[in-house]
Design brief:
Blueprint: H1 3-28, E1 35-37, E2 41-47, H2 50-55, E3 65-70, E4 76-80, H3 87-102, E5 111-115, E6 119-123, H4 136-148, E7 155-160, H5 168-184, E8 191-195, H6 204-207, E9 211-221, E10 224-233, H7 241-247, H8 252-269, H9 280-286, H10 294-298, H11 314-323, H12 333-348
Parallel strand pairs: 1-5, 4-8, 4-9, 6-7, 7-8
Antiparallel strand pairs: 2-3, 2-5, 9-10
Helix pairs in contact: 7-8
Amino acid sequence: MYLRQLQTDAKAVATIDCLKSFATIAVEKNYCRPTLDNSRKIELKSARHPVIESLMKIGEEYIPNDITIDSDSEQVLIITGPNMSGKSALLRQTALIVLMAQMGAFVPASKAHIGIVDKIFTRVGASDNISQGESTFMVEMLESASILNNISPRSLVLLDEIGRGTSTYDGISIAWSMVEFLHNFRDIHPRTLFATHYHELNELEQMCQRVKNYHVSVKEIDNTIVFLRKLERGGTEHSFGIHVARMAGMPTSIIDRATTILKNLEQVYGNNEIAPSVSPSARKRNRKPSPSVGSAASSGMDSIQLSMFKIDDPVLIKIRDQIKDLDINSLTPLQALNLLSEIKKIAEE
């Protein structure tokens, strides 16, 4: 009999409770009133993650960061840095601040200027779908495809470690192509934060005018890393993965062996994560003499470089003719993959 009146009263009480919660947390945590307009810019000063900040121990302070994303100048921010440095937290806090601002709440920042966002797309974390026969990488690709097929000029896109579920070469190629797509596709220019361990992607700043490199800073003291949690301009080429493994309690013998292997790889390939980078300038940096192998090096024998082709083999002659006049430094990642596909077809025939 009084159901309609009860529902009306419940809605009013819920609204009051929600607004009171907004006001209480804003006062307790010193939130600011955001400015929203029709621009395509997001500017956050001293931004914080509202959930992480509330879970910190008494006496600890959350380290804030400034973030500026603008569809016209700084559209895609590529964020590098070691594990546990705070890259994912930066992505999440940006999404939460935008969401809180557009639902009418004050936000955890000293200043917030937000151009209206119509969609927030995220590809953060790793998961699989065993019941549907989908691997972690398949789920990642399905979600990424959904994002790229539905972006709009007012979208906010947050991508974390795209391509990590497959081989290094495939992963870099996919991540590189996605950044180019987000930058170049029509005039959409969605605002994008792209966290990655693929330091080769830093080369994109030189190739795409609205791509900017940032990194989460750390400091190395006596073979130990200190996470400074500050977002700074410019890319980085260090992941500090072995340091993180040591902090996690990995056995010392494994850490020591991993350090030795890393030094050997750096001597051969330089400081980049992989030897043949997709970027032309990184390929030039990586070009070093091939090390001697096994017993030949230990016995003092001169290393012998065998010919790649057996001249009387017509298939290899065809492949040789296909690649001998190529300007490798001018190839894009997509062109290189297409060429490799053509060579594979020749070999199979």
